[in-house]
Amino acid sequence: MRVLITNDDGVDAPGIWALYQHISTFADAVVVAPISERSATGHAISVFNEITARRHIREEKAWGYGIDGTPADCVKMALTVLMKDSPPDLVISGINRGQNTGTSILYSGTVAAALEATMAGLPAIAVSLAVAFKPPVNLPDDDPMKLRKLGQNPNDYAHAATIAARLAKSVAQRGLPRGILLNVNVPAIEQELLRGVVISKMGHSIFEDNFRMVNESAGVTTYQNVGDKLVYSDEGDDWDDIVLKQNKTSITPLHYDMTHHHFLEELKRWMAEDDAEARATDEAVAHQLSQDLNAEVQ
After folding, report:
1. Which tens digit of pLDDT belongs to each residue from 262-286?
2. Which residue in 21, 4, 61 sits closest to 154, CA to CA?
3. Nearest Cα residue to 131 out of 108, 147, 144, 149
């Protein structure tokens, strides 16, 4: 099996290294990832900018390519240039530092890379570790729990990589429907504290925006969005963010068809009613004009 591995945290991120180490034990793994962090770029692609590809060395090993583009660019480059003659059977994006649940999915470069693969007809998996971006304030700087929550070490991602590897084997054996990816979110807790796996739905959680002014000079004001408060989905058993909150791994099937199928027929009825009303109005106006014309002739 041949697997393309990418991410949005960058080719030097600890999560992608952990993923590569696990996947390469049973598959021919090729890494094509952004040369620097491109988190929250969504499904952006480079249209007018040139893109360069560099062989990347890690621990004295040429293990992949660094691309100065977005996660979606990386998948496009891999499929059409770098792996054109020997394409992958599966694409895995991650392991992301931070959860990709609820509305965060729409901003996620990690999920976008997997979506790009499904658009090319390939099965794909997006994997994220729900690390805390803010360490607990009551922990000293040298506390290992604080370092673990920051997700700076490849070992922090080992359990998530194990889950990704197991799921990759399952997808290779069973396949996925065309256009479908699996979005996997793993709690950042000790393995013995995990409470299982839940097949979940995309929730409605959202991070609150908080724009902080960082500079003001010559009439130009600079802001940074530092909002990190997550507003959770309404309580339920199978929203992805609620599943994580329960110390369970969340797996959600996603697809790029954004059509709201349930509302489709209702919207058609709206249009039919509007058309009927417009026709009735036109007929009434035409009838009135005809009467006025006849009156003038007489």
Report:
1. 999 999 999 998 888 777 787 777 7
2. 21
3. 149
